[in-house]
Protein: DUF3396 domain-containing protein
Amino acid sequence: MNELEKLRHYRADITYFEESTDLCTLCPAIGASFYFDGGETAEGKQRLAECVDYYQQLFGKHLKAGLITDQNENGKEIQFSKKTPSPMEHFSKYSEDGCIEWVITGSPTLAVASPYWVETVTARKWEISVRQTKSFFQFSLPLSYVKEKKIFNDLFNFVVSKLNPTLAFANAVTCLPYEDYKWQFNEFDALQRFYCLMPFRRNYFSMDRLGECINGVNWITCLNKFHISQLGGLDNIKNTLHHDFIKITNIGDNCLIKIGEYPNIAPVTEGIPPLYKMVSDFLRPIRVESLGSLHNGSLNGSINFDPRTTDLWLRRFDESGIWPPYPDNIQFYGLGEADEVDAEEVEEMNDLLKQRTTANSLCPQTGYWYTPAKQNSHALFKQGELMPDFPASTYGATIWYWDANQE
Structure:
């Protein structure tokens, strides 16, 4: 099977449910995480709001619940709707010593896992001066969006261009509910069985640890200029990792290393995937020495990540035999292939490609469009018409979105 076929084949195998309620406690997705500086500044909040807006404008119809903190850092659960404050409006209320937490999910409550997820947590100014803490942003989408690469890639590249991250990466990931500690044993079980499946959790634990160093190899790894220098420069990266299935590109000061057209989850029964091993060995000098523990401790005897198994997981590509730590516990459940992406989902992905465009681009389809960069911007444009720009806007870049209300 190729990478795309493996994602489809194992999708049901790595979806977990609570037995008593049949609610989803872990599901696979395609996700991206970004660590960046400047999230406490006014400009940083503006750029961050544009990234959150991008996700919510495109996938809003799938988003249902969330948690938003106020300026006193009191969290409040919400139902996502048109009444939800705009990220730009909300983020601007925080001081540089305030911590923004913004979580929106596709599940009806935060107690259920969903592949639709967008979250940000910003570092406080005093934290940065004491611990060099990074601000954090992440998003995920259903695995079916791997097949329609442009939607995911455009969003990933947009966030990189806006946040200029010190580290960013994308993978096939495990999505847990907001209170992830209750179901971490499911995640450990899933990650034991797949080399390249990555934990996609609320990364407070790593905001102090990642950025200057990286978490290792990923499907897409975005390096900053410091990393590039440590690895001998861009030419050395390109020469050392020269391969038909490894793509190296630049976005501003950042270098993106992408392994294959699709993410590889790599069942442990197939051994370490050679290209991931190759890139991992090259990136090892800038890999973080320790992540502490990926999980909380367990009070009920379940097997979670602890500092020892987290260190093993961090080094899982170094050589055969390191991972998994409990090979006798490995079991593939034989749930069979997940259903093909249905026609309605394919149609939605095709529509999404036409529902966002930038200023000075040609209108993709005739209808009403709006932009957050200008109030009361709802207007009719014809296909092929040049979309206006508002360079003086305090919002930031002028991005036009298809208006669901075509009146």
User: Anything to note?
Assistant: The chain has a mean pLDDT of 89.
